[in-house]
Amino acid sequence: MRRDSNQGHSLFRIAMQSLLSSKATVTAFVVMALVVLLTAAAPLLSPWAIDSTDWESVSTPPSVETGHYFGTDDVGRDIFVRTLYGGRISLLVGLSATMVSLVIGVFWGAIAGYAGGRTDQLMMRFVDVMYAMPFMFFVILLMVYFGRNIFLIFIAVGAVNWLDMARIVRGQALSMKHREFVEAARAGGVSHLNIIRRHIIPNLLGVVIVYVTLTIPQVILVESFLSFLGLGVQEPMTSWGALVNDGAALMESAPWTLFFPALFLALTLFCFNFIGDGLRDALDPRDRAGEP
Amino acid sequence: MLRFTAKRFLGAIPTLLVLMVLAFALIRVAPGGPFDSEKQLSAEIQERLNAAYHLDEPLWQQFFRYLGNLLKGDFGPSFAYADYTVSELIATGFPVSLKLGSLAMLLAVIAGIAIGTMAALKQNTRADYAVMTAAMTGISVPTFVVAPLLVLVFAVTLQWFPAGGLGNWQNLVLPVIALALPQIAYIARLTRGSMIEVLRSDYIRTARAQGLTQAEILLHHALKAAVLPVVSYLGPATAAIITGSVVVEQIFGVPGLGRFFVQGALNRDYTLVMGIVVFYGVLIICFNFFVDIAYRWLDPRVTL
Q1: Least Cα separation, residue A63 to chain B (angstroms)
Q2: Euclidean distance between CA atoms B87 and B77, whole angstroms
Q3: Distance (Å, rounded) from C-alpha A233 to C-alpha A227?
Q4: Which of A124, B47, B58, B146 has the most CB atoms at less than 10 Å from its CB?
Q5: Is some CB atom of chain A closer than 8 A to the CB atom of B56?
Q6: A231, B265: Cβ pair inside 8 Å?
Q7: Contacts A269 to B, Cβ<8 Å
Q8: Residues 6+ apart with CB under 8 A from B162
Q9: Minimal Cα distance from A225: which residue of B?
Q10: Partner residue facing A258 (CB), from B148, B189, B277
Q11: Contact (Cβ atoms closer than 8 angstroms) between residue A180 and residue A257
């Protein structure tokens, strides 16, 4: 995006300032950064590989001496390493699918809001129709039909989550349409597409960033839900959802295999939700707890 | 009211049509047909089978046949359960899921509104922060994490409730709680937010000035306005509970529709899976319709 469009940024900056004054939010930021760092540094932190089996210690509880900080599962794989690598996949899916939903949602909403009139009605009616679809089920079906391809997960999950974004962006675009700078651009002969691209969308960024923060945990949740059902990422890759699924099967004999992946998943979702919520309140204090 | 009902009813038709088209398209793009087996069938048998199942007709004709059958409640035969039709399977599974889902919904609404109201009354106190942090945790911890933990604590360790199965009410306790928890958290947050705003409004101040007790103000004046966001959340909540039941039924071994769905998906029982999608889709659409009507009744300012 262009640097000269800093209206959205400044709004965002104000929100960030009010956020950073709260200790709880700063803690959430720090925890999230730690999780991201840990997953990024996974190979440096442990000698084990994601699928290497340690026959010396099968189903052993967490211990520093064996080097299995989070213990091992029933075939001797290190849970610490698997949790971190699983986190990579979960976070990757979270970010990529959110980008997919971001692109679809922002363009759909911006075009509907800017065009207005019949186009707007038709496009938003389509969104309403989509809202009523049992999407999780369609996603599950897609996974079954087309194999468990990770890129398909991005697309499918992203395609499900763009509706909220489209609605919010549309509302914003609608109110921006008659602002002076848009009219000035129109008077200057800028094409509609460029007005949307250069003027409307950059000004939406503040709001969009808030909803991105709230979409990421939703997307991670959907991916882990699929993986939990055995429809998400496949061995040797893993994700938090898949690990929770494995752990749930072993929880009576080796509860740590459930505990650590579940803890990382919940912690990450909590931090994202907390920050997103705080951001939203900071940007618009009236919009409490939001529409679902 | 009648006009509104008619309008909403007509509005639901395109939604339903999109649902059916998507369902039909997904069946058709699914690789593999109902008669794929290890043994290669002769061309003649293949042809007859196709004719028997109308697979030789043009696509649009098949679509309308599918649509017509759906309207009659006929979802076709199940591929995996050879002797059953999909309608029969839905009729077996749905009552179980309905019981589970409606109990969870009831629990979620009652507990959620109660907790949210209490938090709003104690706004910005330690109790409020504690409850809201708990609620955020409830939203962030997925059902498929909560459910195994509940089993571990209450079924395996404490042995208060059975870990699964279906029988008397004890079997339902853990699945209902697992299903309701995230919704309790969400509804509590919604209620708290709107209750805080309602309690600040002029008419509540007037009621207070007239000397009504806190309980009277809450029950007779504040609650009706404060639950509006909760009512509009009921539609998404239903969808979430239906999705959640897929996991919960799997974990607790409850023989409901959600379990059929997962089994069907893994068995590639396309007609069963599609039938459940359409069935739930229609259910959600109908439910949203009733929610809209309820909302209008609660809030006369709204004209949809």
Answers
A1: 22
A2: 8
A3: 6
A4: B146
A5: no
A6: yes
A7: 139-142
A8: B155, B170, B171, B174
A9: B144
A10: B148
A11: no
The total number of structural domains in chain A stands at 1
Identify all chain B residues contacting A251, using CB atoms and an 8 Å cutoff: 148, 151-152
Predicted confidence band of residue B173 (pLDDT cuts 50, 70, 90): confident
Nearest to B15 among A132, A137, A228 (CB): A132
Residue A199 carries which DSSP code? I
User: Which residue segment(s) compose the domain that A153 sits in?
Assistant: 2-289
Secondary structure tally for chain A: helices H, strands E? 13, 0
* Residues B264, B73 contacting (CB under 8 angstroms): no
CB contact under 8 Å between B22 and A288, yes or no, is no
Q: What pLDDT score was predicted for residue A10?
A: 58
Instruction: Name the nearest CA neighbour of A133 among B286, B69, B260, B18.
Output: B18
**pLDDT (tens digit per residue) in A78-133:** 888 888 888 888 898 888 889 888 899 988 998 898 888 888 888 888 888 777 77
Give the angle subtended at the CA of B271 by the CAs of B267 and B275, to the nearest 5°. 115
CA distance A130 to A121: 14
| Segment B247-301, tens digit of pLDDT | 888 888 888 888 888 888 777 777 788 888 888 888 888 888 888 888 777 777 6
Structure-block tokens of residue A249:
């099967």
CA distance B104 to B174: 10
Q: Does B262 touch chain A (CB under 8 A)?
A: yes
> Cβ of B88: how many Cβ atoms within 10 Å?
14
- The CATH number linked to A280 is 1.10.3720.10
Which residues contact residue B31 at a Cβ distance below 8 angstroms, ignoring those fewer than 6 apart? A145
Rg, Å, chain B Cα set: 24
Tokens of B217: 């103000």
**Mean pLDDT value of segment A229-239:** 79
The answer to whether A289 contacts B197, with C-beta atoms less than 8 Å apart, is: no
Residue A253 to residue B124: CA distance in whole angstroms? 43
Specify the DSSP element, H or E, that contains B51: helix B43-52
Selection from A94, A79, A133, A82 nearest residue A223 by Cα: A94
Q: CB–CB of B195/B217 below 8 Å?
A: no
- Residues 219-238, chain B: which have Cβ within 8 Å of A? 229, 232-233, 236-237
pLDDT, chain B, mean: 81
Q: Is the dihedral of CA A178, A181, A182, A183 positive or negative?
A: positive
Query: What phi and psi values does residue B42 have, to the nearest 5 degrees?
Result: -70, 155
Cβ atoms of B279 and B121 closer than 8 Å: no
Phi, psi of A53 (to 5 degrees): -110, 135
Q: Closest approach of chain B CAs to the CA of A244, in angstroms?
A: 7
Rounded CA-CA distance A282/B207 in Å is 32
| Minimal C-alpha gap between B191 and chain A (Å) | 9
Residues B145, A244: C-beta atoms closer than 8 Å: yes
* Candidates A228, A255, A266; nearest CB to B247: A228
Q: Is the pLDDT of residue B304 over 60?
A: no
Report which of A64, B52, A284 is spatially closest to residue B44, judged by C-alpha positions. B52
Q: Is A123 on the interface with B (CB under 8 A)?
A: no
